[in-house]
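Appendix B, Record 12. Input sequence as logged:
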Amino acid sequence: MIVMKFGGSSVANADRIRHVADIVKSRLDRKPVLVLSAMGDTTDHLLEAGALAIQKGVVELKKIEELHLKTIRELGLGKTAQKDIEPLMEKLRNLLMGISLIKELTDRTKDYLVSFGERLSVRIAAAYFNSIGVNAQALDAWDVGFLSDSNYTHAEVKNESYKIIPSKLLPGAEKGLLQIVTGFIAKDDKGYITTLGRGGSDLTVSTIGAACKAEEVQFWKDVDGILSADPRIAKDAHPVEVITYEAAS
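Logged structural output:
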């Protein structure tokens, strides 16, 4: 078994998702489990929507809806995939309406808000894999055993997760089911959604790898490793051969 993680820029649109699918299909014999981030800038757009709901009492989902519906259309997924994400979009709209009315966005509510990005992403990806003949299932992290403390926006994964996760994921992997798990999120003892902090999807994939004693954990990027600078700004940016964990963080 291997665990493969693809970040937001790697699943930013239909073309990128097709590319991810090509990579994953070539490794199906290694029983992969996927961890996906939210599509593109969706997390930022969700935070922007929350801020707008507080400041102006406006519920604005246009950017988020357009990206996901356009991706579904371009992947040729039809109405079935659209119906898969409609309940989440409705919950998101209701949440923003509540935020606009009470004029408050606590850390707990913020975690709930940004969780929608990953939850939408895995459902679209699973629908696409199934459409091309790969048996796939979208899973929210808490459904595979991700339990955390209640330190909202920077939650820590609880030790008992390491026992639950393999019992949830290994049977499916052995049967050849491609399980696509949300990165970045978990639930606490009270059932509230938590996030593991920005970059928390990397923690998700590492936790799955450790818990399941995976053969390998792979972090797929759209650049050739960690670069010395932002390549969109510095034209001479080059890959850093060695970096400490602290510096990478």
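Residues 2-248 form a domain with the Carbamate kinase fold (CATH 3.40.1160.10).
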